[in-house]
């Protein structure tokens, strides 16, 4: 049951607007996520909940999240080099990163995603 | 009871040592160090499955990319892309870059299983290779989770009913670094790549094969342009056929020495001798005779190149090149140090199986000692000879002996394996070296026990009688000299006899003369003595007469005539 992404690449004007807007705020980059899950397992649901929470909390309005069930799109697993489930792929901003697991290590994840600007200074 | 089903690998020799192949529908672990041939073995399992058994296969690679695999295996004449196009092969490269991956909570390896499942189903694969699973341990760094996931992976493979090969890196003390052998309980194959005497040898061993007979030895294997081949070195059995057919040695006189017929077909012939005794020439004659009969022959040369041998043999009137051109003769020229002993054996077996010769030449076996210890060489040769004997291939082994050692021995002590043993010896004397040939033994046939002189002429080897006489065993010009000398001596002694006989006659005459003169002397002395005796007798008579006359005169006795009767008268 793949959830479809809200919108494709933003139009140049939109992105410029978004960019300007983002500069005023704490974060200013647009995030594109793909979450690969294997059916509706406990891990899958945890991962979906966790990423949605993170996005809504920290990246409101500047993220795309696509959820893909590799049971239904097995070829994608090969194309995208998916080994583990769930796997979150941060495609943008570059560099692309892979996060394996149910995304419950929130603090670590925020730091790795650079959503919290400097992970070493943010003690709490 | 259901018999264990097996999936033949199609790999030369591997099916023999596994008694039919890998356990069907189960995973097999192949472990070994880096560069020992795990990937090749695994890939060949799939390629042979596809080409020989029409079974599709999935190759899940954690290390090499599909294009790398394709180009690597193209050099082995495996066209992977073609198999992929035919849907007989599917390659899935699993890229695992630890630096790009972050663990953020609980997960499983469902992604891997889905990929595998999809790949298997998409081409209906019966065979699966996972090369090398351990990459997961480096990439994910979570042993506990991985172990439970591997268990799941193996049960998944079993449930799919595929025959799988899992490759794993050798551990320090265990077969695999991460103890994968505990998951794969059915069949474990160990590949090794050892170096001794600076020569590498690849070996394969079936560590475990549940529910099946299998060879337990370490078998050498070979990777060449035709892929992987294991040579199931037969245990030393002694039940090979024994032919009564005799084949020419290529030298008429030598045939004569060997009961007038030559060697037995399928027998092993050892030719020993110090350097320069003509061993290779003897072999070349045999090759020439074999090829002239239209039989195939392989010449394994460890010292000389093909061209060198052909040229040298041309000088004694043997044209080996014609047989090479006719495809009857094959030279295999390798330095003995090029690879290990077992590799030599493997190469030889392979070539023998391909070329199907009726005779082989090994020139010289003594060189093999450079690569291994003597007992190892002996063991290898006995395996080779057994292999040749079972196929009724006549083997002519040349052994170079060092001149210091005893002549009737071989450096490798293989004489007991040999049926016929020819010894070539240099006989030195009066500034000449001449070649001599003996038959030290020849099982099962009458053979000459004489030494023959062995002469290399423009038209080949000639055997000549040697001089055996009071001057010892002589050859060459010594023999000629001795023969001349003997003739002279004979004449001389004949004259001497005549002279002696004349002397006897002379002595006889002389003695006869002496006897006659002595007789004369005796007669003369006898006469003298008789005369003296008569004279004495006369004197005595006269003396008695004188006494009678005297007493008559003195009238002493009345009766003087009888002195005896006068005695009574004195009373």
What does this structure look like?
The complex is a heterodimer of chains A (124) and B (571). In chain A, 35% of the residues lie in helices and 19% in strands. Chain A has 124 residues and is α+β, with helices and mostly antiparallel strands. In chain A, a hairpin with a 4-residue loop joins strand 3 and strand 4 (97-100). Chain A has a four-stranded mixed β-sheet, with helices on one face. Residues 117-124 of chain A have low confidence and may be disordered. Chain A has a domain at 29-63 and 75-117: Glutaredoxin, CATH 3.40.30.10. Chain A is built from four helices and four strands; from the N terminus they run H-E-H-E-H-E-E-H. With 571 residues, chain B is α/β, with parallel strands linked by helices. Chain B has two domains: 6-230, P-loop containing nucleotide triphosphate hydrolases (Rossmann fold); 246-465, 3-Layer(aba) Sandwich (Rossmann fold), CATH 3.40.50. Chain B has helices at 14-17, 38-52, 66-74, 80-85, 110-123, 135-140, 143-160, 252-257, 279-292, 306-314, 321-325, 341-355, 374-390, 476-554, 566-569, and strands at 6-7, 22-23, 27-32, 57-61, 89-93, 101-103, 127-131, 163-169, 187-196, 199-209, 218-224, 227-230, 246-247, 263-264, 268-273, 297-301, 329-333, 359-363, 394-400, 420-429, 432-442, 452-457, 460-465, 467-469, 472-474. A nine-stranded mixed β-sheet of chain B has the order 5-4-7-8-3-9-10-11-12, with helices on both faces. In chain B, strands 17-16-18-19-15-20-21-22-23 form a nine-stranded mixed β-sheet, with helices on both faces. In chain B, strand 24 (467-469) and strand 25 form a beta hairpin. In chain B, helix 12 (341-355) runs parallel beside helix 13 (374-390). Mean pLDDT of chain B is 82; it is low at 565-571. Strand 4 (97-100) of chain A pairs parallel with strand 6 of chain B, so a sheet runs across the interface.
